[in-house]
Specification:
The chain is of the alpha+beta class. It has one domain: 2-Layer Sandwich (Alpha-Beta Plaits), CATH 3.30.70.1060. Helices cover about 25% and strands about 30% of the residues. It is built from three helices and six strands, in the order βααββββαβ. The strands form two sheets. A four-stranded antiparallel β-sheet has the order 2-5-1-6, with helices on one face. The termini are close together. The model has no long low-confidence stretch (mean pLDDT about 80).
Amino acid sequence: MKFMLLIYQGDAPRPGREGETNEQAVAAWESLSEDEQKQVFGEYQAINETPGVSPGVQLHPPAAAKTVRGKGGKTFTTDGPFAETKEALGGYLIFEADDIETALELAARIPSTPMGGAVEVRPIVEW
């Protein structure tokens, strides 16, 4: 069975990047020692090398997004994700496992989880 792990960074420490709007998360990253930063990168690398994991990608901040909606046969485009949440989607990965418990164990290993983020584990419908 395949699962999508949706990574919500929240205020979990992360390196700054162009267009970054969560200054608290960037400041928290910069407060980590070089060894702690290397540990976080190493944990992500280990997760990407876990059998059954198809590494996903990191997303740009929500401010870089556009949302397309439809109504009355017309489409409309708005800036941003149009979501009222500080836990915007930061990235994802796909994991093939025997059961959801195994996927939950992997989600708990994602560094942003114990640092204040969240990971949604959702089974993928396979036709």
